Amino acid sequence: MPYKITVGERMTREQVREMLGVNATEEDVTNFLNKFQKIRENESIKISTLETQLQGFKAKENEYTETRKEIERINKEKMTTEEKIKAEQEETSKKLSEANKILNSVKAKSILVSAGIDGDDIDDIVDTLVSEDESLTITKATKIANKFKTKIEETVKATELKLSTLDTKPNMPNGNPNDKGIISKVEFDKLPTQEQIAFKNNNIDKYHEWYPLKK
To answer: Other CB atoms closer than 10 Å to residue 13's CB: what's the count?
Structure first.
């Protein structure tokens, strides 16, 4: 079996004789070894040159890597600054929007309260109609207030007509037989809210008799 050897290895004369065969002379062996040594030296030079070039490429690669990192860092800082400015603008715009809504909410609530709308539900009503647009908010609040006023007026008239036909019985709980046409507190409590408001507006003294003002 022929002897296999790579260029990087050293060869002995015995290995060369095995490769060349039994007819090889000492001169043939010597010539082969010289040629092989020359090849080894040339290959070593090539390898050394390639290693030097590789080191140069690695140095360049490191330099390029550092350069890219520096560019990325600068771009990141630049983007961060722009993002901060954008974030500050958005935050300012958001705060301005919230301030406008709060101001318009106060105006809308004032319109509703002046129309007689009050209680726990008023905040929910205000939330549904308030926007950043002052004019639009006031228009919506005014429409609701006018509708409420109209409804109250209609309810007051209907309640007055209803009360005018009522007869108060002496044995009615909390009733006063001397108050002709005035319903009892029990009946009052059973009336719808709008009728209670109408009764209160027309019988304020009786209402405060049932529900004294808190001092």
So the answer is: 13
d(CA 180, CA 8): 129
Question: Residue-wise over 135-160: b if at least 16 C-beta within 10 A, else e?
Answer: eebbebbeebbeebeeebeebbeebe
Tens of pLDDT, residue by residue over 152-179, are: 888 777 777 776 665 444 444 444 434 4
Q: What is the per-residue pLDDT for 94?
A: 86
To the nearest 10°, report the CA torsion of 200, 205, 211, 215. 120
How far is Cα 215 from Cα 122, in angstroms, rounded to an integer? 25
Angle CA 130–132–138, to nearest 5? 50
Q: Which residue has the tokens 């983007």?
A: 79
Determine the Cα–Cα distance for residues 189 and 199; give it in Å rounded to an integer: 11
Amino acid occupying residue 12:
T
Cα R_g (the chain), whole angstroms: 52
**Contact at 8 Å (CB) between 182 and 203?**
yes
Model pLDDT for residues 6-16, shown as the tens digit of each residue: 445 577 888 88
What is the spatial distance between Cα 133 and Cα 197, in angstroms, rounded to a whole number? 32
Closest CA to 143 of 108, 102, 118, 195: 108
126-135 per-position pLDDT tens digit: 888 888 888 8
Q: How far apart are CA 82 and CA 49, in angstroms?
A: 49
